[in-house]
Amino acid sequence: MTHTTTQLRHVKQGDTFKRKPNAAATFIRNHYNRKDFFGPANFSCSYSDDMNREIFLKPSTIVYIEI
Question: Which of 1, 10, 13, 65 has its CA 20 to 30 A from that of 45?
Fold first, then answer.
């Protein structure tokens, strides 16, 4: 498998990505949270194998997508 790097803001909603090129876990990019009183702007990303787990990443985070 060949991977390319990109910023998370360029990954379309619903597409999968990895945080490192050889990582076992894949994530699905979900909705965008605008900056507000509660915190900074970020994307909600859920694990592809467990929809009950999610992380929040900055839009400038470098991720790996499969070509």
Answer: 1
Query: Closest by alpha carbon to 4, among 15, 34, 45?
Result: 15
13, 30 contact by CB (below 8 A) = yes
Instruction: Judge whether 46 and 30 are in contact, CB under 8 Å.
Output: yes
According to DSSP, residue 48 is labeled S
The residue with tokens 């859920």 is 46
- 2-38 pLDDT, tens digit per residue, is 899 999 999 999 999 999 999 999 999 999 999 999 8
How far is Cα 32 from Cα 35, in angstroms, rounded to an integer? 10
* 3-state DSSP assignment of residue 8: helix
Instruction: Please name each of the domains of the chain with its CATH number.
Output: 3-66 (2.30.30)
